[in-house]
Amino acid sequence: MKLFDLGGRVAAVTGGNSGIGLAMAQGLASAGASIVIAGRRADRNADAVKSLAALGARAAAIEIDVEDEAACHALGDQVVERFGRLDILINNAGINIRKQPQDYAASEWHKVLNVNLTAAFLCSQGAYPHMVRAGGGKIINTGSMMSIFGTSFAVAYASSKGGIVQMTKSLACSWARDNIQVNAILPGWIDTELTQSARQQVSGLHERVLARTPAGRWGVPQDLAGIAVFLASGASDFVTGTAIPVDGGYSSQG
Question: What is the pTM of this model?
Answer without folding.
Answer: 0.95
